[in-house]
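Pipeline run #58 for the internal structure catalog. This entry was flagged by the ingest filter as a single-chain record with no existing model, so it goes straight to prediction. Upstream metadata was stripped on purpose; only the residue string is passed forward. Reviewer on rotation: M.T. Logging verbosity set to normal.
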Amino acid sequence: MRAVLSGALLASALMVQARADDADCKRLISVVGRAAETRAPDFAEVTVGIEARGATAAAALDGASKAAAGVSTQARALGVPPADIGTAAVTLQAATRTVARPGGAVTEEPDGYRAGNLVSVRLGDMDRLGDLLRQALDAGANRIDGVSFGLRDPDGVESALQIAATRDARTRAEALADAVGAKLGPLCTLSTAGAAVPPPMARTLAAPMAAKGRRVPIEAGTIQLSSEVAATFAVTR
C-alpha cells in the first residue's frame, strides 16, 4: 500500500534567482527540471488514548493517568527514547446518563466523571509498531486516535531533490540547444517552489481495538517525493 505521507512538516517555498549579464541573455531556452523519489518512512507517530470513568473527578483522572503511565512504560521498554514520548492532551468532564421518566419524559442526571489522556509516541523501529500498539492496549489504552508516518530529515530530502531537479533542467536545456545547433550559455534565471515532501499521513484506528495479546497489523507503505525547478539559460550560435 502506498502512503502519501500524514505530519508533520511541509516543504517551505523557496525562490532563487540567478541572472547572467543582460547581454548574454538575449536568446534564451526555458526548461523545467524534475526529480522524483520513493522512500519508506523512517518513523511512525502513534497517538494512544485512554478514557476512564469514576464516581469522583479524582478517581476518573487517576484511572486515566495510571493507564497513560503504563503506555509510557511499555514504549520505553521497546526502546523509545523519553524525548519521543509525550502527553498530547488531558481532559476531565462531568458525565451524565439519560433517564426515562414515567409519562415519556427524558432527563439527564449526573453519572460521575469521565477523564481522558492522550499519549503521543514516535517510533523509529517500524518493525515494532504492531507490538507497540498491542502493548498499549495491554497497558490499559482503549483508543488509538491515529498513526502517522514521516521522515525525520525532510529538509535534507528537499535539498537533495532540488539539486537533482536542477541538474535535470541543465541536461534538458543542453539537449534542446544541441537539437537546434546552438550552444548552451550561462544560467539566466532559476526558480523553485520547493520539493514536494508531504506531511505525515494520519490513519485513524477507532476503538474497540484488537483483543489483548494480538499484534495489531500496520503497513507503513511508501512516500512519494518530487521536486521541480524552472530554469532559463542563454544560448549562443
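catalog note: Residues 1-20, 202-212 have pLDDT under 50 and may be disordered.
catalog note: The CA atoms of residues 68 and 232 lie 57 Å apart.
status: ready for reviewer M.T.
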